[in-house]
Design goal:
alpha/beta, Rossmann fold, 12 helices
Length: 283
């Protein structure tokens, strides 16, 4: 083969593996080859990488990533908002995955590290992030993972008797109290289950409520993590709220709460937890 043809062949071989992804900032990031060393600074992204069968490519995670168990053995490099830049650089990652709300992306990029910022906020975003990370990680598993999520979500909804679906639910994410409204991904899950959310979409995804709002709304069921449940019945007027008076309160463990509040591949598991709760408290 002539030298010129050899050169063309080598160029084509090199670029055949090159690709680009566009993240949630609207930035397009180019890669010559599939990343093999990944740092994840958001639990939902960590879980998505593993759901796609690529856990072994993670070399470090943030302090909140705790699923699956194998990631707890990886080095932790701080949180999404306060990562240890020096530790990340020392790991020589091919890419850092982080939330769009993180403010360290530009610093990492200035140090020559590629950053892909993805922050799923609803069900559609979870599907989109799966697809983007599928391209980034060089796997075709994303459609199958999404199909499994959809089937499990549908199964959770079908497990509920019609009589349960007329009930009104209040989901508290923080005792301030902050609620999961209809516009949140948790609200979307409640809608998929067929129950009514007392917090309308007009108030935003996770609004801070006046406690009196919940008293007036008088939900049939309350869903809350066990940490936030402490003292709930002692709030002024809350002892008369139907859900508390009838003991129709779903109290989730910290591990279950992690599943419920993360917009990621385990959201179908969250739907199953909600459905189990509804069947238990509304016999």
């Amino acid at each position: 083969m002539k030298p010129a043809l050899v050169l063309v062949w080598l160029v084509l071989l090199h670029t055949a593996h090159a690709f680009q992804v566009t993240d949630d900032r609207g930035m397009t990031i180019s890669f010559e080859t599939t990343p093999q060393r990944i740092v994840s600074l958001l639990p939902s992204l960590t879980e998505t990488v593993c759901a796609l069968g690529q856990c072994e490519k993670l070399v470090a995670v943030d302090r909140y990533s705790n699923y699956p168990d194998r990631v707890t053995k990886l080095p932790q490099v701080g949180g999404g908002l306060d990562p240890n830049i020096e530790a990340i650089v020392a790991l020589k990652p091919d890419v850092v995955l982080m939330a769009t709300s993180s403010r360290v992306g530009e610093r990492l990029q200035a140090l020559g590290i590629k950053v892909v910022a993805l922050e799923p906020k609803n069900h559609a975003d979870v599907k989109s992030v799966l697809a983007t990370l599928g391209v980034l990680l060089g796997t075709s598993a994303a459609p199958q993972v999404w199909q499994s999520i959809e089937l499990s979500m549908a199964s959770a909804a079908q497990s509920l008797p019609v009589r349960i679906k007329s009930n009104r639910v209040y989901f508290e994410v923080n005792r301030a109290p902050y609620a999961a409204g209809e516009a949140s991904f948790i609200g979307e899950t409640l809608t998929r289950l067929g129950v009514q959310n007392i917090v309308p979409a007009s108030l935003g995804p996770f609004p801070l409520l006046n406690p009196e709002f919940v008293v007036r709304a008088n939900p049939d069921v309350i869903m809350v993590g066990d940490i936030n449940f402490a003292g709930m019945a002692g709030r002024p007027g809350w002892d008369n709220v139907r859900a508390i008076a009838r003991q129709q309160v779903c109290i989730f463990t910290p591990a279950q709460a992690d599943v419920l509040v993360r917009t990621g591949p385990r959201m179908a598991e969250g739907a199953q937890l909600m459905a189990q709760c509804l069947r238990k408290v509304l016999p």
